Amino acid sequence: MDRYVWDGLVSAFGELGRLFGIVTTNFDERGINAGVDEATTGARGLGRVMSGWHSGQIQNYLRAAGVSVLVVLVLYAWLT
User: Fold this and answer.
1) Helices then strands (H, E): number in the chain?
2) What is the pTM for the complete model shown?
3) What gap in Å lies between CA 14 and CA 10, rounded to an integer?
């Protein structure tokens, strides 16, 4: 009984665990890792675009912040 029944059950659970490992590895590689890779590629592209806007002149940054605040205030006043 030990050799055929219990050994068979242990082998079956081992194979089930190995199959689960294969499935989760494929999901991780093709799903999660691919999504993270795409997100980092997009962030890198956005960083390249934004680095082109960097001039080092503080007045341009303050002007952009002021215009942004003005746009938010106008939208808030218009929507309420």
Assistant:
1) 3, 0
2) 0.44
3) 6
Number of C-beta neighbours around residue 61 at 10 A: 13
pLDDT digits (tens, 9 = 90+) for 43-74: 998 888 888 777 778 888 899 899 999 999 99
Distance CA 3, CA 12 (A): 13
SS3 77: helix
Q: Distance of alpha carbon 77 from its chain centroid, rounded?
A: 35
Structure tokens belonging to residue 68: 């942004």
User: The tokens of 59 are what?
Assistant: 């007045």
For 34, the 3-state DSSP assignment is helix
CA 2, chain centre distance (Å): 48
- Give dist(CA 46, CA 1) in Å, integer: 65
